[in-house]
Input
Amino acid sequence: MKKTLILALALAALCGVASAQTDRDPETNPVILDRIDQWQDLKFGFMMHWGIYAQWGVVESWSICSEPWIDRKGMPYEEYKNRYQALNKTFNPTRFNPAAMAAAAKNAGMKYMVFTTKHHDGFCMFRSAETDYSVAGVDCPYSRNPQPDITLDLVNAFRAQGLWTGLYFSKPDWHHRDYWAPEWATPDRNVNYDIPDHPDRWENFKRFTHNQIRELTHNYGDIDILWLDGGWIRPEWSINDETRPWLGCSQRVQDIDMDALAAIARADNPDLIIVDRSVGGRYENYRTPEKQVPDTLLPYPWETCMTMGDSWSYVPSDHYKSTTQLIHMLADVVAKGGNLLLNVGPDAQGNLPTEALERMEQMGAWLSANGRAIYATRPLYPYCHGNVRFTQSKDGKHRYAICLIDESATQASFTVPFKVKKARLVAPVKKSRVRCQQTPDGSTAVTVFLPTPQQHAIAIEF
Output
């Protein structure tokens, strides 16, 4: 295995992380806890939602779910679903360049990736012995490539750039006949039969799911993160007032046997981080608030998963957040103890949108200069103060203040709510000056003078 644990580090991780977990049956394995601590050093990750839905430029998977909030623009449900599910017959991303994607992520300052190997629609972006509904299946034009396994290409490319590799996997599979059985209607996102009445069907689905997890965690080398989605598949003990509505009209408990699944996943990857999203307990090693940044520090490992635009998957007219917004969000998340997993959806040909690439390049430039205030840091009380975010090195020897700037400026003034004798820019700028002046209330007024306009944010060490 890739890491040799030092007992002292393992025990430190055990004390530091486990104490923050309050769910039933929390993780106690020092190997996993140490790995979570290492993941918390990375701070910035790259996510890609990509599948057959990119051909239509529609939301991933959800348009084939018959829930009342779904808009199919008037097309009858069965006709729409049949046309959507046939998109595997035209998926052929001829401009897919995994090396370019990985290089763009590395240059953006991203340290890990999470790729959608299979979304809820069941189409696999990897070669699977369990189904032909995949990029390597005979009906998919991309299968005629010399190497048609997109997941394999991405894992190899990102690993070559030094990024951690994470694989997203949907526990529900709306294409599998033992999840959405064709004999009955599918009124919502959930399994459409009573499991106690058809135990063999559910066992078949569990076996299928476990076998696909075995493929993903055994066939692609050393995987770092298994990111499981579809939180309505969960054990009964984990159902609460928030998650009960996800179970739909029939309120069926769908237990996938996470003990067995995790054992399979970690057979070749004993330090694999597993993120069974929203379920809690031993197999949700960190939490993932979706498209949300918490108001304050959270007492457990967490990651904001956020879209760069408005949509998770490729939409031609998507509206992208500005570079300033994204850098401010990264600083805010990190100051509160989290990581930022930023999503971009490639188009049907395999291109990352030009606007997204521009944002990534600009974020990378800022991080190459100011990354010391971001990477491998931990929160510093009071975390946030007006337009300032605070971080510190893990050993507490270096403290940082990141001043968020909305527009170009040659001067930035802010208050630090404690005494500061002197400060300097993290990214030195010639002829720049930093002045600190004590205020009567014990705070420090900090003024940064710059010879040229600075965009986005200024990081100082004090």
User: Anything to note?
Assistant: The radius of gyration is 23 Å. Residues 258 and 416 are 46 Å apart (CA to CA). The mean pLDDT is 93.
